[in-house]
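Hello forum,

I keep getting stuck at the same step: I have a sequence, I want structure tokens, and every attempt I make locally crashes halfway through. Rather than fight my setup again tonight, could one of you with a working pipeline run this one for me? It's a single chain of 274 residues.
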Amino acid sequence: MARPYDLAIIGGGILGLATGLKILETHPAARLLILEKEPEIARHQTGHNSGVIHSGLYYKPGSLKAQGCVTGRKALIAFCEQNSVPYEICGKVVVATAEEELPRLDELYRRGVANGLRGVEIIGPERLKEIEPHTTGIKALYVPETGIIDYTKVAAAYAAKIGSGGGEIRTSSKVTGIAERGGEIALQTTFGEDRARHLINCCGLQSDMVAKMVAITDGANSEEHRIVPFRGEYYKLAPAKHYLVRNLIYPVPDPTFPFLGVHFTRMIKGGGGI
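Reply #2:
Ran it on my machine without issues. Output:
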């Protein structure tokens, strides 16, 4: 029987691929296996998003989310530069349309400055019109370090480097069972059984389902480890209306609803917003 993999990762989205790549960079001799149930990588959240490179504006200064977003943005851009992955740092505006939104806009500015964003500024209606001529607001926050990218292409670049580094990515390989056996982890898949010394779960919205295959909860209430998904709706502007959106236009976040609200995003390939 072939010796087990040093590490198996379940999930061939951008998180699983980035995790595998980082491990190979730090442990180049490791035997790595990434299992993806779909016929191709990046078929779920990685390939179905608006492709924004977030600046780190929204998160509480000093928090892990803020640190991760800011350092992650810089690392992503460096990777793209080194591996010819197209991206664009186009900037965005967060637009206030009512007086009651202005304190929240000021707080976003404070957070942006505290998180080390360069060039972030509060602007008036005239400057807003220069940046986004078809946008109306009483004030706005200009965030020049926000960008756009195709994360499917990022994932493909990660996968290529994993392959050249000796890692194995196996698609159409759904994990159906996980068990510990003789100090190893046995993974039942649609290709048969694989064994690994260590396992990382990078299954996105289905990570809780995979976690239930092993004793990860250690008897705890399974509701503590439950993913509650939320779905967003995307609409494409008609080609004749692409000119209405130059880059990214966001509303001031409403604390009543913990989401970004309706916003317009230009995609990296050019054309309209969604």
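The chain has two domains: 5-47+152-225, 87-145+233-265. If your local run keeps crashing, start a new thread with the error log.
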